[in-house]
Every structure is written in structure tokens, then in C-alpha cells.
Amino acid sequence: MEDAEIVALYFARDEQAIAQTQQKYDRYCRYIAENILSSDEDVEECLNDAYHKAWNTIPPQAPTVLAGYMGMLTRQIAFDRYRENRRVKRGGGELALVLDELQDCIEDRSVPSVQETAALQDTLNRFFMQQPSRTRIVFLQRYWYGARVEDIARSLGMSQAGVNTLLCRTRKKLKKFLEKDGIRL
Amino acid sequence: MRAQAAFEALGLLSPALVLEAAPEHIPVMMKRRIAMKKKLCLILAAALLVAALTAIVIGTGASASPRDGRPISDAPVYIPMDTYTDIVERMLVNIGREDLFVVDERGHFDGSYMYKEYRRLDRSGEEVGDLFFILRFTAFYAEPLRLDKEKYAEQIAELEKLHPIWAVTEDICPLDISVTPKEEEFIIYCLMAYAGFTQQELVELYTELHAMVEASDVENKEEILATLPPIPEAYESEEGEEMPEVPDMPSFDEGAQAIG
Asked: Which one of A162, B111, B213, B237 has the lowest number of neighbouring Cβ atoms within 10 Å?
């Protein structure tokens, strides 16, 4: 079923919308959640929350790219759950490594204004659009999806050292780019 | 906290960029381990097969110029953008224009994103700090993307005046369903001149392309084969035939000045 048809089901308040979303994007959302959360139970709850949130937010939201929307919801919910878990017990996992690597990339953050968020969004999009496709994919595989370096290397036919080098360079470039744009979070 | 802020900030990225790196693409990217020529071969085979079939079905032949109202297929073939990006990036490196970057059309599916980029270029090239380089084959998607084709055509015409290399990519693009033998020759030339393919690589690429069609189960195989480009070795034997000239690249400043 096409995305537009699924979204139409949401608008019609037809519960088939969730079933169809699940059928089409469960693997994708599960991949995101599993990279962030270590417990199967947490992953399942995260996915249920994501579908529930989709149901509650469409409408008024009308995503044209449902995969992007579901991915964004899943990532945010998974990350919220990760932080909640960390409050109870500091854990490791792949995301802890991902966060360690990102440590120096961005400055400490207070609650940003709408304008600051929009500026950051624009800057990030501009930065990544200027990067070669492979750089974008490697960086986002690692820092958006939380994929393991060895998996990225294997999927792209690169060495792990190559992936790490590319990530390191891109983090530095991103930091400079943000500074140049005066982004302070 | 800083790291968490950074991780959260990445959540603001456009879905187009995020989906580009989505796990669904992993199987495609794994194919990158295959040599570039093989990857290209697959694409060329698929695209030319569609081209040949389309030409046969709609009976337009293969003589129409891409700029003279190319027919748009009712069933566009969605080929992974990464592949084209690879080709173009390789081409840009080879011509020493690493300052250029590729804006792919992945984010343009809502029919507005592309215009945003154009407007940015039209207003002031300096605003983005670099020269935009947009793959021409997006024109092929104009219809399915519900773009304003007339406006799009005007913008393409304007950009072509500024950036001759734009036209080069159009000819490189194997999606072009109206490739003539002469244009195909130009594609080969461009692949060599810009992307640094060796004659041997091209021979292997095109040999494999022919072999794939030979091995396929399609009907009218002979007709399709007749529409495929000859293996490049044939070009070597045609002495005295001049290849098209390589267009000069305008500098970014020149481009920006021309925009006004």
C-alpha cells in the first residue's frame, strides 16, 4: 500500500492504518529501536508507542514520506526511553559509544528557541547536503541510526579504520561548520 | 549532556537525508563491493533495456533529442541515487572540481524541494557558498513528481547556460530513453574524459551489458540488441571521427555573475 493511502486511513480513523504501517515499516522502525535500546521488551514497547503516537498525530500531521516520519518518531521515543533507563541504571550498549563520540561535536545545550531550532535544522541540512553521499550515509548510519562501526564497514565494503577515520573527520567538519554559523545550543 | 544534545539535534535532519542512509539501502550499498564497472553495467542494462522496450512500444524510435521533448515513461525506473552520485563525484574529482557538490533529487519528492534549491541559486549563488550541481536526469521524474514542468524546463534552460557540465551529466545518464548512437558515443567519451574510465573498463562494461541482454528472457531480444550501443572497441577502429569537444566549465564567480 502506498504511503498516501496509509495516511488516508489515518485521516479516516481506520485502525487498518496502524496494521498497514506496521506491515510496511516494522523492520525499519525495529532496526532503529534495536540500535538504541538493548532490551527486547523496551524495543517492543518503543514500537508500540511509535504506532500509538502516529495514530495520535496523524492528523493533523500528514507526512508525505511515512518512512521518515515513523523513523523520526521511533528514534525520539527510543532515545527518551534510553535516557529514562540511564536515570535508573547507567548502561553501556552501542548508543553509549555513539554518544561518547559525539561528545565534542556540539556545545552544551539549554532549551533552544524555535528560531534556534530552525537555524540548527537549516545548518545541519546544509552541511550534510554538501557532503559526499558516502560520507552522509556513514555518518547518519552511525549517529542517526546508531549502527555499529563494523556493520557499517561491512555493508559499505569499507574497513573499520576507514569508517572511523571518515566519522572523525566529519565530526570535526561539522563542529567547524556549526561554529561558523554561530550555532550555540 | 552535550552528546545527547548532538544526538537529538541530528533528529532535525530532513527525512530525505535520513532515508538516504536507511537500512533499506544497505543491500544496495553492499553491491558497491562489486566493481564499479559491474555496477554501472547493471544500471546500464536495466536502463537501456527499458529504453529499448519503451522505444519499441511507443514507436518513437531513438532519434529524438533529449532536449526536444523527450517522451516520459509511464513507468519510471527508480535507480538508486547513490550510484549516480558516485559517478558524478568521481567525475568531479577527475576534472579537479571538488569544490562542486551534488544535490540529489531524493529530497524532492514533494515537488517543492527542488524549487527551493533553484530559488537559492537564482537569488544569489553566494548564499550557498558553492556551485550547485543538479543531476539532469531529475527531469525524467518531473511528471511522477508532479513538478511544474514548464517552470522546470525554464529553470533547466537557465542553468544550462551557466553550467555546461549540466548537459554532460544528462548525456552520461543512462536513463535517457532517447539515446542515439551518436549520443551514446558521447556518453562513452564522457565516461572516459570525466569519470576516468579506461577503454578496457568500458569494453568490459559494455561487453557485459550485451551479455546480460543476451542471457535475459525478454522477448524481441534481437530488436533490443540492435538498439544497444556497440562495444566501445568499435569506436577505436573508426579513425578520423572526432569526439565531441569537452565543454569548458565556468567558474563559480562567472556563474554567479551571470545569475546577477
From this structure: B237
